[in-house]
Amino acid sequence: MIRAGVLGATGYTGFELLQWLAYHPHVEIAFATARSDAGKPLSALYPTDLDIQLQAVEDVSLSDADVLFLCLPHGAAQEWAQRGLDAGAVVIDLSADHRLHDADVYARWYNQPHTAPHLLAEAVYGLTEWRREALRQARLIANPGCYPTSILLAVAPLLNAGLLDGATIIADSKSGVSGAGRSPKLGSLFVEVNENLKPYNIGHVHRHVAEIEQELHALAGDHAPRGIVFSPHLLPVSRGILSTIYVPWPQGLSADDLRALYAETYADEPFIWLLPEGATATLAHTVRTNRCAISLHPVPERDQLIIVSTIDNLVKGAAGQAIQNMNVRFGFDERAGLMPVARARVQEV
Amino acid sequence: MIRAGVLGATGYTGFELLQWLAYHPHVEIAFATARSDAGKPLSALYPTDLDIQLQAVEDVSLSDADVLFLCLPHGAAQEWAQRGLDAGAVVIDLSADHRLHDADVYARWYNQPHTAPHLLAEAVYGLTEWRREALRQARLIANPGCYPTSILLAVAPLLNAGLLDGATIIADSKSGVSGAGRSPKLGSLFVEVNENLKPYNIGHVHRHVAEIEQELHALAGDHAPRGIVFSPHLLPVSRGILSTIYVPWPQGLSADDLRALYAETYADEPFIWLLPEGATATLAHTVRTNRCAISLHPVPERDQLIIVSTIDNLVKGAAGQAIQNMNVRFGFDERAGLMPVARARVQEV
Amino acid sequence: MIRAGVLGATGYTGFELLQWLAYHPHVEIAFATARSDAGKPLSALYPTDLDIQLQAVEDVSLSDADVLFLCLPHGAAQEWAQRGLDAGAVVIDLSADHRLHDADVYARWYNQPHTAPHLLAEAVYGLTEWRREALRQARLIANPGCYPTSILLAVAPLLNAGLLDGATIIADSKSGVSGAGRSPKLGSLFVEVNENLKPYNIGHVHRHVAEIEQELHALAGDHAPRGIVFSPHLLPVSRGILSTIYVPWPQGLSADDLRALYAETYADEPFIWLLPEGATATLAHTVRTNRCAISLHPVPERDQLIIVSTIDNLVKGAAGQAIQNMNVRFGFDERAGLMPVARARVQEV
Amino acid sequence: MIRAGVLGATGYTGFELLQWLAYHPHVEIAFATARSDAGKPLSALYPTDLDIQLQAVEDVSLSDADVLFLCLPHGAAQEWAQRGLDAGAVVIDLSADHRLHDADVYARWYNQPHTAPHLLAEAVYGLTEWRREALRQARLIANPGCYPTSILLAVAPLLNAGLLDGATIIADSKSGVSGAGRSPKLGSLFVEVNENLKPYNIGHVHRHVAEIEQELHALAGDHAPRGIVFSPHLLPVSRGILSTIYVPWPQGLSADDLRALYAETYADEPFIWLLPEGATATLAHTVRTNRCAISLHPVPERDQLIIVSTIDNLVKGAAGQAIQNMNVRFGFDERAGLMPVARARVQEV
């Protein structure tokens, strides 16, 4: 058993993480911290029977944790990552603070200087299926954003095969409201979201663009695509992201070649669900699981390929992938604590 | 044409009111005020093409309004009611500040003293169908709460006939989220409300209890019921209130007698929709209209009567009834601006 | 390990049952049958990765099952219950066919004669928490209806203590749409249900009334209540039932006495969640779990007690309670396969 | 006043049409027909107080109608269009039967021969803003599909200016469930749609592709685009379509030029709402109105332009545009019966 600490446990991501960790066979929860709600039981904040007492971060000893999960706002995570490392913990940061390798890029997209740039070189971008090598030795893991996870897993096989050289990738993504967090804001109110669909920060504006394009290049090597056009939409559902991705048809490949490429690439992946020909990925394929569902839709009439991918933004897009990364880092079975048996638990939110 | 002013135009109620007033055949909007959003067009706050500029209340002259609608939080409305009266306007208060006749009762239920108790005696409780006489001369109209409207209209015929003498009335009410207002709070977030149903302040706790019991007695005269048990529930819908009301079966009446009583009582009411035998009122019967739908369900096996009533909390439960009261007060057709039969305006185009 | 067979696996209840059984530590699925979909994999009907092939009932041997779950429409279950018993299986009927002990009552409420009345005497009504004795020996278990489960568990402590003698119990229940089943009907269409709330069969009309009143008497013994007024409402959510129950205040008891009664009665129950004073049960407390959440709300001003209870209609209201009954019958830990504490399985990975 | 007849009045489109027609200043409803529901009042099918009796089509005389609206399934409309013309009525067909000019194309996309090909040449495609000339003389008007309306209005200014020569247009569209009609099918059930998002017929498969590409060419003249990639998604909302459209940036134009082009093109259009720079179209901008909202989003970093457009699929996408076409054809003010004052009416569904 290893001991896990969670900083920032009261948001949707922190709570989701605690629910999965609580039933992980190899983990015990050392502490979970909160700011304004320190001192309260978790059950005062959520309709849960998990028996967890929230503590002030000042009252916990980071060295009690073998693994420290940061569910803090970006900006705040930088300081605590260093403290966690100093205390000897493996740090898994679910914020955006360590995803970008270049401090200047971070500063430009997040409108603030990075206070611990020396960590950016060390941080491993935790897109599990594509970073296992590095993850096994990592001290600091930057857990990917929800949108980037849904998009990168869908196009990685093409990038890795050098088939999107110079291409512009269009990703039309739709996300559930939990992605906006639990702090009350007008745009997250039921009446504003219900019976509506709202595109926001579309084109080349959303902060995840920087993260996505960095990793597109990393995955493509010498055959880098030109970049991405990214359009997030706010969906009237609680959870889930569906990305409808448009790429130019890879010259010289048949639809069967393409399907074979995906099938081989993801053959042994427990959490990648490549749907059979004719099926289309929907939110219902992945909500409340750590899976990413992918379906392929050739459009020969227009020399295009459409890839649909779905994940649960709070699981594979956050807490679940963080645990998957922990499993890799500590040598556990990668599926530990993430199999459907825990499903009954993932009820709240 | 009369001139209407709206104080507090940016909440759901204020916005709803403006949308109806904008197409009222006998009204022009003199001003609409906001606090933090003063100076902005309404279209900066809502996806609307209504061309209305929000002003600071300090910058408007109340005397420009023949009728002044108060869409302010309770507490704040008291001061402005007096100012409106001093400026010679008819004041229609959509807050709770002038519904209770007794300042002590107000203080007890709202945890604050009433700062203008002298107005309580004068204010007319604007349950239109039952207060027309008084409304015609009123200077100050207290617009009923949404829950009270749905419950009082449903039981008034029985009370008025003295058939609930000493009875305990059980009202199990379910409301859409717009009733909670537009200020961001945790309990109104999409993720908290969606796929959930939440009873709150149930029993004899909700502030509307005082208002309901006051009016139950007023309607029943010498044959007052004992009182009410009131259970509000938060529904995952944007608009609408449905109240399922349980009363002891009125001794000596047949189901036909009862139906006849309701049919006669509401025979000429344009906004009371008594459903035929066998039909059941649903939210869909009344959402986005000023109607109240009522269906009667005798339970002879248990000597009980169930009455189901529905309204739109923002229309008949707030803005619509306020306009209906204005129509009565100013001698307009009571339906003016509240039904598509405001055909005159359509013909202009 | 025991072998489980499921007849009628393609409805929401059947599918829910298979999902839980698939991860039960002591069960393997022997067969799952369908009518029109026989021969298809389950994944052709639902977005699932469960690898189950649907068979025609004619092609399976009932004797391959130690326990046979009937997820058939009422009427159809009667014949198959007998066949299952003849094949030596323990039969758990999730339909309404064996809940009523009196064939005449069945015929009256279901408008058809019962074809196997001899089984009614033998069938054990599987409200687990109150029938363990009988369940341990049962050959045929009648799994309770969803509404009755939510209502009976909430009032059983009072009935059992003889505190509702002669009382009329008012149950205002609200249910998610999955309770209406998966066969396409107008009333279950998204557009009909969404943004709506619809009471149906209210008063003393719904078929569950017969089942509820039979069990009220069974639980109360010599201190039987008069009966129930029952008002189901269709909620715009997928899962969950919330019942708001009104009973006359039990004379001579204090609020503390009452809370103590419930606390003692349900002290050791793994699936009954008595909420602390001040908390109110919501759907979110129980959706996707086998729990029943109960909160108590005294109304001293009106000598009434309100009890709020919630369950997931597909879990504690159907598939989950069926598995709980199976666990009791076969001597497994009652929680097996119903809580993440089925940790054993997780440890395998 | 003209007399309007409606064939197929019981679906969502037919009902929507009746609600708007009922309050049109220049129209009286001559008849409304139904198949299985003939003889019933409309209120037996919908929670409405519109007093309309449904008749069997055999029992009405088409010559009683000056304008005949066909809300029939494709295939069925062909026969009745001819009959309506023979009876001297102007026929407005809301089905797909007369949208395609080429009978072979129709046969290929609808898998059945067209039984009245001689009408295809005569039928005017009723995209009102772009076909007024022809509509004024039309005997037979083919009302556009909902998806095509949302897409064509958004790109027409570019096509008309010859700016999409040879381009591939990518339209990622999301539609509410009412677009699927009111006949019960599994895919339209609340539980299937709720909390889900489902792409369907994506790429170059959906029948609207043929209609869209025909009109793209018609609007572009000598500067035809290559064609479209079209991806419809089923949204968990009742009404509304949002299309996110990706086109290559028109060479040599600045963002201001582009905005000016749209502003001039649609300057005097009462139902085209070009949003100001910085705003983004959402469903809430147009639901329950006859408007089409359009917002422009240049992506200079990737030489792309994103156009977002929204309509209400039942109004501008069906019944509303049909009335707008009728207004043009009969010389009424184009806004007659379509102004917001009728809004209060558009409540059901």
From TrEMBL, chains A, B, C, D:
| GO MF annotations, alphabetized | N-acetyl-gamma-glutamyl-phosphate reductase activity; NAD binding; NADP+ binding
Keywords of the record, alphabetical order, are: Amino-acid biosynthesis, Arginine biosynthesis, Cytoplasm, NADP, Oxidoreductase
One GO CC term, this protein: cytoplasm
Q: Which reaction does it catalyse?
A: N-acetyl-L-glutamate 5-semialdehyde + phosphate + NADP(+) = N-acetyl-L-glutamyl 5-phosphate + NADPH + H(+)
Q: What are the EC numbers?
A: 1.2.1.38
The GO annotation for biological process reads: L-arginine biosynthetic process
SUPFAM superfamilies, alphabetized: Glyceraldehyde-3-phosphate dehydrogenase-like, C-terminal domain, NAD(P)-binding Rossmann-fold domains
Q: Which PROSITE patterns does this chain map to?
A: ARGC
Its pathway is: Amino-acid biosynthesis; L-arginine biosynthesis; N(2)-acetyl-L-ornithine from L-glutamate: step 3/4
- Domain Semialdehyde dehydrogenase NAD-binding per the UniProt entry, residue ranges: 3-138
UniProt KW Oxidoreductase keyword: yes
Q: Which cell locations does it reside in?
A: Cytoplasm
Q: What is its main location?
A: cytoplasm
- Known NCBIfam families for this protein? argC
Question: What is the role of this chain?
Answer: Catalyzes the NADPH-dependent reduction of N-acetyl-5-glutamyl phosphate to yield N-acetyl-L-glutamate 5-semialdehyde.
The UniProt entry, under HAMAP family, shows: ArgC_type1
Q: What is this protein called?
A: N-acetyl-gamma-glutamyl-phosphate reductase
Which lineage is the organism of this entry classified under, starting from the top rank?
Bacteria, Bacillati, Chloroflexota, Ardenticatenia, Ardenticatenales
**What gene makes this protein?**
argC
